[in-house]
Amino acid sequence: MENNQFSGPVSVLQENRLPEMALPVGYAALIDAYELQVPTPLTLSAIGKRHKVYTENGWRIYTPRHEPRATFEGHLVFALKYEGLDLAVLKRLFEAVSPADVEAIIRAKPTSAYIRRIWFLYEWLLERELDLPDAKSGTYADIVDRKQQWAVKGETFRRHRVRNNLPGTRSFCPLVWRTEKLERFVEAKLDEQARAVVGKISANILARTAAFLLLKDSKSSYAIEGEAPPHSRIQRWGKAIGEAGKHPLDQNEFLRLQRIVIGNERFIRLGFRDEGGFVGDHEQDTRIPLPDHISARHEDLPALVQGIIDFDQGYAEGINPVIAAAVLAFGFVYIHPFADGNGRLHRYLIHHVLTMRGFNPTGIVFPVSSAILERIDDYRRVLESYSERLLPFVEWEPTEKMNVRVLNDTSDFYKYFDATLHAEFLFECVQKTIEIDLPEEAAFLVRYDQFKSRVEALVEMPASTIDLLFNFLKQNGGQLSRRARNNEFAELTEGEVAQLEVIYQESIVR
């Protein structure tokens, strides 16, 4: 199928500047030719003049020998061969072309693995069979190229002679690229490293370390949202995190978790949204919404939430636990099914997957929220890596309540997105908790016990007073302040104060 609308060499394509005058190919050419209203892939492809393949400013420039035929088939096969699967683009593309045109290319090359993959994807995404007999020959081909993107084992489809190894359903199937960074993380076997660290810690210290890390994660998760709730609420949420992975996900479980997170429902309507939602601010004078991210339409929530549940129950076990956790958690937060509590539940889902898959040692919760809080700017950039590309394709209007009402069909944008950057970021956070937070907290508790026993040998005082003494010394660089000497610790002699300061230095600072 020829298409005269395919561009020739350009320096700018739909506001995207190329690093040189080049010919857009693959998804870039198809999105432009068929005027697809869809978030563009993070990296687009073009054919340059030089015999060198390079990547720059969101473009991968190929050599003249890579140039495909300027047809629907040519550019689509190029995309599958070099750019992997972008299900949102593919679905909008298939909706834009005539079924007869797709049938024609399948009849012309019925044994081609790329064509049979296109055939399956057309019928799977559109839930519509083409007027074609079942394939009679051809080696079974994987729908997801395992060398490009992470996939599950999958099941065979005789009609197309393919293996559907997509890691999800039509209702929720984000994809992740096999980058060098992710390959290194997977090969590092961080779960085994964590168990090795835990194996060197005594049972008493390990129990206290686990309790501290759990509380640290709960506090950090609220802090990320700019909240400082009462300690009782932090503890309740910490208890829920400690039970992550023990209860299967379903709609009732999501509702239970939201009630724990919110606590008081006086001003927040609990339950799944029955109106639009967005993340952002309001214009100061008019109160018009200024969204940074627009949530999925409330009409689409039942299918999207079920898609997340199905992924958790049927597909998460097929891929690396950290990658699965990133897909599930970031998919949830983009959908934003609740009016409030989405961020904390999104981070809870990380713990849910890691625990369910046995990634973290028994009884240990990695303080992922703490690692995220320390890298809050990076976290926001990862969230915006998709939100910023999505926002221009969501048509909306303000409501009387100064919320947003989405006017176009956006459900595909939440079902299908590239979660590669999200998986890389989560791996970095998990690595920090294993290699730094866990051993450092355990080592600190050992030093604190030494400090406590030496203080008790010098001066008899209750455990709570020793804790207070420790905090005063910590806050003042190992020196007891004059205010503390004159008030809480007025009974201490100058000699005792000097010895306590030495104990602190030798036990804690070293």
From TrEMBL:
<dbReference type="InterPro" id="IPR040198">
    <property type="entry name" value="Fido_containing"/>
</dbReference>
<dbReference type="InterPro" id="IPR036597">
    <property type="entry name" value="Fido-like_dom_sf"/>
</dbReference>
<dbReference type="InterPro" id="IPR003812">
    <property type="entry name" value="Fido"/>
</dbReference>
<dbReference type="Pfam" id="PF02661">
    <property type="entry name" value="Fic"/>
</dbReference>
<feature type="domain" description="Fido">
    <location>
        <begin position="249"/>
        <end position="399"/>
    </location>
</feature>
<protein>
    <submittedName>
        <fullName>Fic family protein</fullName>
    </submittedName>
</protein>
